[in-house]
Design a protein that fits this description.
Order of helices and strands: EHEHHEEHEHEHEEEHHHHHHHHEEH
Number of strands: 11
Shape: globular
Largest sheet: 7 strands, parallel
Mean pLDDT: 92
Number of helices: 15
Oligomer: single chain
Low-confidence stretches: none
Radius of gyration: 21 Å
Length: 385
């Protein structure tokens, strides 16, 4: 016998300012939406970098809970920010220990405040505790508000491979609070915009035109940045809810343009390159490959690389030329690792024109090498970061 069933999911995405201001009812309303009469328990997990740059945040969460009759299960848990939190299983295990110690149940909430790596790690821990505790994500970086925070994937790194263990569990809600972006340094504001450019060139040519027209101002102008983040997040949500494969049961990952190389570059550089910086280089490499293979007009590729450089990205890193013990370019093993991550079949997103992405199931290694050699023309006089 064979039976089938489906499970409906709601995916609320909200935009606000001052999410933990006592007079902002948004978070409390989200927590109460299914059981308005219940007194809800909440455990907050906060990115250490966010706590350091927003010194009133931890006390502000406690004041917010008191103002809205939410029960904080414990003082907010501070965890390391950046990829370090995903590289050590001690961090998700410590969160699981805390969830157990404070007695969270499946109708309690974990509110995660931080960048993409912290969102990934805490959401993973919550997803495997009691087979799933409700999570409200509060992304605090450009990258996480525009892309990674608006997703159903939760993961940590293992065996030197990015996102090797994880789950597909939608958050209870995502709240993008634009005030958090004001405390970011210039490098972090720029880095996240790579994913905005990525989704524009794949899905929305007029959106790319908007980014192109504001390329030199987008990282510095908060109003422009908020506008492009909102559109990027909307495109990601439409993709998740409308493409028929939100849990990636197939091998295709249509929004991963530039990512096979980016994931490997992050590992090769020991995460010296931020994710968005690696994605920008990966996009430039895949654009070059698309042109060499005759898929894409060179003028279109130049438009995209010009925009990335105008935003502030360097499109070359010496790690592209790093070789393994056999003399083979280390980056090429990224194709094998990407194939494993996808489920055994290679699906790489490339570009036919701006707004028109498509997939290939094979990459010509010789042309990848030639594309790297061509990309080296973008090597700046001073590559060091």
């Amino acid at each position: 016998m064979e039976y089938g069933f489906s499970v409906p999911f709601a995916f609320p995405l909200h935009f606000t300012r001052g999410v933990f201001a006592p007079d902002n009812p948004l978070l409390a309303g989200i927590v109460r939406r299914l059981e308005p009469a219940r007194r809800h328990r909440l455990l907050a997990v906060v990115d250490a970098r966010v706590a350091a740059t927003n010194p009133a945040l931890v006390d502000g969460i406690a004041r917010y809970a008191a103002a809205h009759d939410l029960e904080l299960a414990a003082a907010p848990v501070i965890v390391p920010g950046g990829e370090a939190v995903k590289n050590d299983l001690a961090h998700p295990l410590a969160l699981l220990q805390k969830i157990n110690d404070v007695g969270l149940d499946r109708q309690s909430f974990v509110a995660v405040v931080g960048g993409g790596a912290v969102l990934d790690t805490a959401s993973f821990a919550a997803a495997i505790a009691h087979r799933g505790i409700r999570v409200v994500r509060v992304p605090t970086t450009v990258l996480s508000q525009a892309d990674s925070g608006v997703g159903v994937k939760n993961s940590v790194n293992l065996f030197g491979k990015k996102n090797f263990i994880g789950t597909f569990v939608p958050p209870f809600a995502v709240i993008n609070d634009f005030e958090f972006l004001e405390s970011l340094d210039r490098r972090d504001r720029i880095s996240g915009i790579a994913e905005v450019v990525k989704v524009a060139v794949l899905k929305d040519a007029p959106f790319f035109d908007d980014i192109e027209a504001n390329a030199t101002q987008v990282a510095a102008d908060s109003a422009i940045l908020a506008r492009v983040i909102r559109r990027s997040a909307e495109l990601h949500l439409h993709h998740i809810c409308g493409n028929g494969d939100p849990f990636e049961l197939g091998s295709a990952r249509p929004l991963d343009f530039g990512h096979w190389a980016a994931h490997k570059l992050e590992g090769i550089t020991g995460h010296r390159l931020r994710h968005g910086e690696a994605v920008a280089i990966g996009i430039a490499l895949d654009l070059t490959y698309s042109v060499r293979m005759g898929y894409l007009d060179r003028a279109a590729a130049t438009r995209v690389t010009t925009v990335l450089e105008a935003i502030g990205f360097q499109l070359w890193d010496d790690a592209l030329e790093q070789r393994d013990q056999d003399g083979r370019l280390s980056l090429l093993s990224g194709l094998r690792e990407f194939r494993e991550h996808l489920g055994g079949e290679l699906h790489i997103t490339l570009l036919r024109s701006i707004g028109d992405g498509f997939e290939v199931t094979d990459m010509n290694a010789a042309e990848v090498v030639a594309s790297i050699e061509e990309l080296s023309a973008m090597r700046p006089a001073n590559v060091g970061r």
